[in-house]
Amino acid sequence: MLPENTLLRLVCLLFTAVTLAFAATNSTNTTADTFDILKAPVITKPGCPSQCGDLTVPYPFGIGLSSGCGIGEWFELNCSHAFDPPRAYIYDTNIQAFEISDNQMRISIVIARRCYDTTGADVLRNKASSNMSGTPYSYSELNKFFVIGCDDLALVFGDGSRDFTSGCITLCSSAEDIIGGYCSGIGCCQTSLPKGLQSYTAVLSSLNNHTNVSSFDPCSYAFVGEEARFDFRGASDMSDPNFSQRVKSTVRIVVDWAVGNLTCAGAQNSEDYACKANSECVDSDTGLGGYRCKCKDGYERNPYLDPGCTDINECADPNLHNCAKLCINAPGNFTCSCPHGEYGDGTIGGKGCIAYNSQFPITKVALGN
Ligand SMILES: *[C@@H]1O[C@H](CO)[C@@H](O)[C@H](O)[C@H]1NC(C)=O
Ligand SMILES: *[C@@H]1O[C@H](CO)[C@@H](O)[C@H](O)[C@H]1NC(C)=O
Ligand SMILES: *[C@@H]1O[C@H](CO)[C@@H](O)[C@H](O)[C@H]1NC(C)=O
Ligand SMILES: *[C@@H]1O[C@H](CO)[C@@H](O)[C@H](O)[C@H]1NC(C)=O
Ligand SMILES: *[C@@H]1O[C@H](CO)[C@@H](O)[C@H](O)[C@H]1NC(C)=O
Ligand SMILES: *[C@@H]1O[C@H](CO)[C@@H](O)[C@H](O)[C@H]1NC(C)=O
Ligand SMILES: *[C@@H]1O[C@H](CO)[C@@H](O)[C@H](O)[C@H]1NC(C)=O
Ligand SMILES: *[C@@H]1O[C@H](CO)[C@@H](O)[C@H](O)[C@H]1NC(C)=O
Ligand SMILES: *[C@@H]1O[C@H](CO)[C@@H](O)[C@H](O)[C@H]1NC(C)=O
What we know:
Number of strands: 26
Distance between the termini: 96 Å
Shape: elongated
Signal peptide: 1-23
Keywords: Disulfide bond, EGF-like domain, Repeat, Signal
Radius of gyration: 28 Å
Strand content: 25-35%
Number of helices: 5
Pfam family, one: EGF_CA
GO molecular function: calcium ion binding; polysaccharide binding
Bound molecules: 2-acetamido-2-deoxy-beta-D-glucopyranose
Domain EGF-like: 263-310, 314-354
């Protein structure tokens, strides 16, 4: 139970600070990564490298600033060999790129941190902010805003295209109360971000400057990161001087990306329309405009590169067809068939193939006499 004055102070904070939106956190998993753009012997423009350290870079992304290897400056990565292995940074920023898929990219996170001494004085105070306005990137719904601490209130403000303010509170009175394993509201709270957000600032504040919890929780942290990759370990995280380092090396921010700022309908008539043969255009669902290209069903490869997507030969891979005997590949699909002298739909799990003569054994006997 919280003492009455703490509750009062809490209520005051809630009403005097900005309106807090406490989002119910139910992750909708609609944007699972797909990796068509990596499926081809050649995934870059001619003469462009495909690898920066551990990162594979498929077109429309490219390695080298002003190299022409990417579809635009924000798709070009600065591959720095000052590190081993080399690191890829987006354009001229210090944002590191880690993984590129058909609709998303994973980038480095920034962590807000605030530490107090036993008297409640601030000894360290870093805020975290990020601004991707004017770029093809926006924060994915796979991220959450996380706050770690036992006497903490943190707000996250959006700027620019999304007028957004949210935040959460985490309170606990002893290390024993903290539940590790998931972000439950005790020692760790989390809230959602709206789709299409391109910029945010996170600010940490405290109810009692950690004076009541300083024995086990000198610091608090706030960051935006991929929900599925953050592992809250409970009280041990509170006293871990390496907590920020661990989170920075394991948790990424997922960003959605799109080409241009036009919809498919608008882009299809423009001369720099990016989708090549046998591909489809998909409008970005962030509300910011832009589109992506996707191979038609039954086709694969990088839809942004000539010659476009090519037919998948389903017959060559037993996992891709369900034919019992004969498989005939066709553009975009395949058909099953039966050898001469047999009939049926030719599918495993369907009618399969049945020999004509095995159908009439009794008739045969009758005729034979
Ligand atoms: C999350 O949403 C799904 C689908 O809308 C629903 O079935 C599920 O019960 C929800 N989970 C929680 C924890 O609210
Ligand atoms: C989303 O769904 C995919 C496939 O169903 C799964 O592999 C992935 O872990 C899910 N991600 C989240 C954040 O739930
Ligand atoms: C590329 O990255 C390196 C290492 O971070 C940096 O020193 C350099 O200035 C960057 N180049 C540009 C053009 O931003
Ligand atoms: C974010 O960047 C854009 C474009 O560079 C700029 O116009 C805007 O003022 C920046 N926003 C903040 C909050 O810094
Ligand atoms: C917390 O610290 C701030 C400034 O350091 C001070 O103004 C405030 O009174 C302190 N609050 C508590 C509850 O100690
Ligand atoms: C926390 O500390 C403040 C003053 O520093 C005190 O008034 C309050 O009762 C304490 N709260 C708890 C839960 O111990
Ligand atoms: C801190 O964490 C990083 C990443 O997990 C690890 O590489 C490093 O060795 C750790 N440092 C200490 C002092 O534990
Ligand atoms: C859309 O992109 C074009 C070309 O990059 C640019 O000139 C234009 O200002 C952009 N429009 C908006 C609304 O951002
Ligand atoms: C294969 O694709 C063609 C052309 O799109 C279509 O007419 C045909 O019905 C498809 N066949 C099957 C078995 O899906």
